[in-house]
Batch of 2 targets.
Target 1
Amino acid sequence: MQDFTRPGGASGDHRRPSPRTGPRHRVAAPLRFLLALILPFMGASWMGAPGIQAQVPTVAPESSEAVVIRMAEDFIRALSAKDTATLAPLLSPYATLHSVRVGPDGPEIRKSTREEFLAGLGGDGRELLERIWDPTATVAGSVAVVLAPYDFFVDGRFSHCGTDIFAFLKGAGGWTITGVTYDVVREGCPPSPLGPPGAGGA
C-alpha cells in the first residue's frame, strides 16, 4: 500500500485516507457483495420476462399418416426378424390376416388370427425377408389404411410379390393394426426399386 505521509517527520504525520480504506470504500465493499448475490437471480428473472425469454425450438407432432406408415414398416421389419415381441403390441387382440393366392383350383383365400400368425411365424427355421416401398396412407378420423407393394424372399431366394394393405383403428391407447390383407403373386412380378437384397434395399 502506498504511503501518503507529508514531509516533516514521523511525529507530525498527517495521513489522507487511503482510497481503499476511506468511508467510500467501506460502503462500496458491502454493496459489491450484495450485488454479487443478487445479480444471478435477477438474470434468471429477466430470462422469464416477456420479450426476453429464451426461444426454445418447438417440434411439430408426428402426423397420423406418418404414425401408421411407421407402424406398417415396423411390422414388416419385425416379421422379417421373426420378432414376435415387437409384432404383438402392434396388432390388436382382435386382428386378423387375410391373403389371396392362385391355387390349382383358382384364387384361394386364407385367414389367420393374431395368435395363429404369431405362433406360426418362422416355425420351420427358414430365413425370411419382406420389403415394402412407396407406402401411402389414408386417414379419416379414427380409421386409417396403409397400402404398399412388397416382395418376399425365403432363405435369400425370391418367393413372391404383391400388395400389403394394413387397416388401423385409433383407440384410447393410440393406433393399432386391426387387419393385414395381401395377395401372393408368384409370376410376372416387376423389378423392385429397392434392387436385390443386400444392395441397400434389404
Target 2
Amino acid sequence: MKLRQPLSYPDMNIETLREYCLSKPGAEETLPFGPDTLVYKVGGKMFLLTGLDSEDLRFNVKCDPDKAIEWREEFTCVQPGYHMNKKHWNTIVADGSVPDKQLKEWIDHSYELVAKKKK
C-alpha cells in the first residue's frame, strides 16, 4: 500500500490535544510518570499519553491490532507505539500531514477501546 504524501494541515498543539481529551466523558488527566508526561485515562485506564519535553507534538494511542498495522502502512505520521506494546499502541506525530479531524478520529478510537473495556 502506498503512503500518503504529506500535505500542509494546521498542526494540533498540546492545548487543543488536552482540551479534546478532557472533553471525553469520564476522562482524567494524570502525571503518573513524572511532570513531563501527560496521561489521559478513562475508568482508570490509559487511552493517550504524550510527552511535554518534545519540540513536536507526538502522542501514543491505543489501537485495534489490525488497524494499527493498516494505519502505519497508510500514514507516514503513524508509527509503532514508542515505549509501548507495539501490537496495541501507535505513536502519532502531529506533523501537519493529516487534518485535525483524522487525529481526533484516532484519539476517539483509542478512547472507545478503553472505555468499552472498563464496563
